[in-house]
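User: Please fill in residues for this 618-position structure.
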């Protein structure tokens, strides 16, 4: 490919911002207090658009078929596996990290080659055992790390740094997995780190063997042309049908490189879905931050005639996504309910759940991890009707996980207080209510008064993990009450995070505390409220947050903007006055906040934001 943009750092404000962010990223990676459970530390992309640049024409019949399959299936297995497993999270006798151990060590290339890649011989790898575990969990597809940030190829690549050649293992594990998946009718995808590659001079990230985190454009272009393009071509040509290509951390990616990847995948695998972490707004479906939660249902990625889900991911391991001796074999039985509830919440808000496992160095998936997945599978065997192929909640801000299908609404309840379930907002007439786990579908007693619904659930019908209550309604698509935020009787306007929508996916939300998680790291992380203003005027603005030195964000009304400062003690949730803003006209309108000066990411306590209150000025 010719015509590469060699002016990445010349006069480009966006890329200079990325350079600043990466400096913070580097500090965070060397800070012992950094959370080790995260795969990505970078929320910024290298372009102005976070998702949506791919033209609608890219959704060809083959892409649409697989997108419908993804929307139907909802649940897949992520597999983080590579030479880092060989080190089991340890370096020089100390706990360091899982899949990020080479970076956090930092481990020189020669040492990593000798102690990790050179010794990596997973003799007990059996793809059918992996598929058994996935099927028992109710998972419908598998995504394996074909190359993570350490630069090691988990397949037979022409680049010599691969599992077949480098350690003289002689087996192509991705080939074996692809053949087994084809035999078992299990869809297969691969993860590929297109920018970060700590093994190569031109790859982003390695500043202990080479100069700088970012690389001179000429070096990065050479790496991309001679390794990335070649390997993505190999992976999409030589391994049968590929369901999904999962790119990650799009540093130094420009439009030309992103389109190049889209073209290679399209040519070799016309139906393969590409995720948004390719960069610059490209891709077929959007991906959240790791463990990404959202306070609201999101259909922002849907096309007029195609339901395009967003996707998020979590791991059944602790202390990282790859295998460690201290996080890979833990008994997670106390967390089974949380995994199931996450699945319900994600599907109810319009998403797809990718749950990660971390095989041992020998290629086996620990029994403790398999047990976690099996617990979900057992629940799905009874309650899968409410998940597979289900639409999101008809309420934009559901009080708990809710899914729907034509003529049905499914309520997912972790706890049922005093044998009664309450739901406000459904206007469609409810004809029957029953417990999904009840084979007899015995009708439950309920009372419906306008939008208020109350259901009696006998104790014997409570399920051990998550109980699903089915509402059969008169309408094929549920009618709901108006969820537009209303100005209070005293003239105040409440803007809680719990009632906002996200402008982009790379942000998260804590349902228990109703606070943001990792908001403020990216100037594109808008929070959006739709408000019916009856009494316009001048409003005093009161924020509720934890403080973060230097962080600023802007509150935007239709005709006015106010800069807010994250004052107060870091880590302490407090309310503080922030100035005033004018709302000139009455009616339904949009209010937003966007970061203007991002938060520092080099601290353990990330910024937490609960919302704003607008109080009319007399």
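Assistant: Residues filled in for all 618 positions:
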């Amino acid at each position: 490919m010719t015509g590469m943009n060699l002016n990445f750092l010349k006069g480009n404000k966006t890329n200079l911002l990325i350079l600043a962010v990466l400096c913070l990223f580097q500090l965070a990676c060397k800070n012992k207090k950094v959370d080790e459970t995260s795969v990505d530390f970078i929320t910024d992309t290298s372009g102005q658009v976070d998702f949506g640049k791919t033209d609608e024409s890219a959704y060809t019949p083959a892409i649409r078929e697989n997108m419908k399959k993804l929307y139907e299936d909802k649940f897949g297995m992520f597999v983080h596996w590579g030479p880092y497993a060989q080190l089991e999270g340890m370096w020089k006798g100390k706990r360091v990290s899982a899949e990020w151990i080479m970076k956090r060590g930092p481990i020189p290339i020669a040492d990593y080659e000798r102690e990790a890649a050179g010794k990596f011989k997973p003799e007990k790898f059996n793809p059918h055992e992996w598929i058994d575990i996935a099927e028992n969990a109710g998972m419908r597809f598998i995504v394996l790390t074909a190359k993570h940030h350490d630069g090691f190829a988990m397949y037979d690549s022409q680049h010599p740094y691969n599992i077949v050649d480098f350690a003289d293992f002689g087996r192509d594990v991705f080939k074996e997995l692809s053949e087994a998946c084809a035999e078992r009718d299990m869809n297969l995808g691969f993860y590929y780190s297109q920018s970060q590659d700590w093994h190569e001079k031109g790859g982003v990230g390695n500043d202990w063997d080479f100069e700088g985190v970012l690389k001179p454009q000429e070096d990065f272009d050479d790496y991309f042309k001679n390794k990335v393009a070649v390997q993505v071509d190999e992976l999409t040509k030589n391994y049968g049908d590929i369901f999904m290509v999962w790119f990650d951390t799009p540093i130094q990616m420009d439009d030309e490189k992103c389109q190049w990847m889209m073209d290679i995948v399209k040519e070799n695998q016309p139906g393969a879905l590409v995720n948004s972490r390719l960069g610059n707004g490209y891709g077929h479906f959007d991906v959240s931050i790791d463990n990404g939660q959202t306070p609201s249902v999101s259909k922002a990625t849907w096309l007029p005639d195609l339901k395009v889900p967003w996707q998020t991911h979590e791991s059944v391991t602790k202390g990282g996504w790859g295998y460690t001796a201290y996080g890979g074999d833990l008994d997670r039985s106390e967390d089974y309910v949380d995994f199931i509830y996450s699945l319900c919440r994600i599907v109810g808000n319009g998403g797809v759940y990718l749950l990660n496992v971390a095989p041992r160095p020998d290629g086996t998936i620990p029994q403790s991890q398999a047990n976690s997945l099996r617990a979900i599978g057992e629940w799905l065997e009874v309650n899968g009707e409410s998940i597979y192929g289900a639409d999101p909640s008809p309420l934009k801000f559901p009080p708990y996980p809710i899914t729907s299908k034509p003529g049905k609404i499914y309520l997912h309840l972790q706890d049922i207080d005093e044998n009664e379930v309450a739901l406000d907002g459904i206007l469609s007439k409810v004809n029957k209510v029953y417990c999904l786990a009840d084979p007899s579908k015995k009708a439950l007693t309920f009372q419906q008064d306008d939008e208020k619904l109350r259901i009696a659930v006998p104790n014997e019908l409570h399920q051990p993990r998550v109980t699903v209550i089915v509402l059969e309604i008169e309408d094929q698509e549920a009618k709901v009450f108006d969820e537009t935020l209303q100005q209070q009787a005293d003239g105040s306007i409440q803007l809680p995070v719990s009632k906002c929508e996200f402008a982009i996916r790379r942000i998260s939300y804590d349902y228990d505390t109703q606070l943001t998680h990792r908001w403020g790291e990216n100037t594109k992380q808008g929070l959006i409220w739709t408000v019916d203003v009856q009494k316009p005027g001048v409003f005093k603005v009161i924020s509720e947050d934890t403080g973060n030195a230097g962080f600023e964000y802007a509150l935007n009304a239709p005709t006015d903007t106010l800069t807010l400062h994250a004052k107060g003690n870091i880590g302490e949730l407090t309310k503080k006055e922030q100035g005033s803003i004018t709302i000139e006209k009455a009616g339904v309108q949009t209010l937003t906040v966007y970061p203007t000066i991002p938060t520092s990411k080099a601290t353990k306590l990330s910024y937490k934001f609960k919302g704003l209150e607008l109080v009319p000025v007399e």
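For context: Residues 217-237 form the longest helix (21 residues).
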